Amino acid sequence: MIYRFTSILAVTLFLGFSARPTSAQQPAKGAWNFVASGDSRNCGDVVMPGIAETAKKNHAAFYWHLGDLRRTSGVDEDIAHQPEHIAKPLSMQEYWNMSWQDFIDSQIKPFGAIPYFVGIGNHEVIAPAKTREGFLLQFADWLDSPALRAQRLLDSPDDHLLKTYYHWMDRGVAFYFLDSASDEQFDDAQIAWFESTLAKDLASPAVKTIVVGMHKALPESISKGHSMNESERGAESGRRVYADLLRAQNDSHKYVYVLASHSHYYMDGIFNTEYWKNNGGVLAGWIVGTGGAVRYALPPNSSDAHGALVNVYGSLLGTVEPGGKINFEFEKLSESDIPASVTSRYGKDFVHWCFAENTQVK
After folding, report:
1. Pick from 80, 74, 65: which is nearest to 135 by CA?
2. What is the pTM of this model?
């Protein structure tokens, strides 16, 4: 794919929110940090090493990818502009064969020793090129990491089967990744697993906080048009999970936070909608699809969010306080934050293209 170097101003919409520049953040005594984002197709090989530096500077306990690793439906612009592929362009079959290994090499390895949790998105199930089964095989080392394996067997001693959804504990916080990547999800098996596991966490006084991550956001959000509302099953099962989390918040008095990506912008307060105000209540929710994918315009009624940013890359920094409350801030990534080794590999022109031209918002 040929890229253009038209000079444009990157558009940033500010809705009652201030993006904090990336800087070294040592958490307060007893507090600790983690970092999350999703949608790293298109320019993720350029952007994600910068997010890795954000994670390192903030002493992140882990990084959490919320899905859409590579484009799959076409060759990612970053892969197409790797020097070896400029000289000899890839066929689609060649691209499919190497795209997930490219993700591992270019978007996981830069995090070094920081634990990395990987989630599945809709671009990981574009058949016949990519399937859920293929994802489980390719990323088994991460989906069956010591932390996830130990928690899976603690939750259910006979559960030796890898899944695209998972659960782990860290210092009183229960983290869940739910698979919302395709129209039939959440299926009955995933719902049964989630509700059974959640019930144990709600009964435990040691669990102060529930954090649920996924790719497509739960239904009836401000981003309803690009969420689990895309299918009847997704809308129905997503509302059920939302109701489960409301009970966790209101009846069990846990802190509850919901993270998603899928839409390629940043938004805080995604469930601040009339639907949820009239159907139980509003959960704290974020969309952070800012890992390198082509950037989208904000949806209608985005002014109802607490804050939203468009034409940005970056990650969500979560700071967990000793009592379980989590403070979230968006760590915006600038062109100058891209590591020199990445700029050397791709060239300044392409790195600039990713920041200036990888967008649907002109």
Report:
1. 65
2. 0.91
